[in-house]
Amino acid sequence: MVKLRGHHLICLHFFKGKGYGKDFIDNISKVIEKARQSEIEIVDGTDDVCGAYPYNRDGFCTYSGNADQEVRRLDELAVKLLNVRNTVGWNHLKCRIPEIIEVWKEEACRDCDWNKTCFIE
Q: What domain of life is recorded for the organism (predicted)?
């Protein structure tokens, strides 16, 4: 079973393999492949993606001064918008994302450093 935090339930669907280092890209690719084939356990905090994230320090996001607080806000928003708890399947998420994407873009993507990477063709 793959462990994912809230915002990764949405953001991984837009992953293009750009904007990150090779090790992190390889890890995300493996996590996505596994998520497509098994149930996803929704976790609070560090997940299977964060383990290889270069700004993960002892379970906290250190990308910027308030990054951990912001990531946790996005996790809560994602879980609320998707209306999921505990476990979920990749295909269920894939079906739900079009229904919530406009709110997600406004609330989460607007100030995200990777928003242009996610929505390029």
A: Bacteria
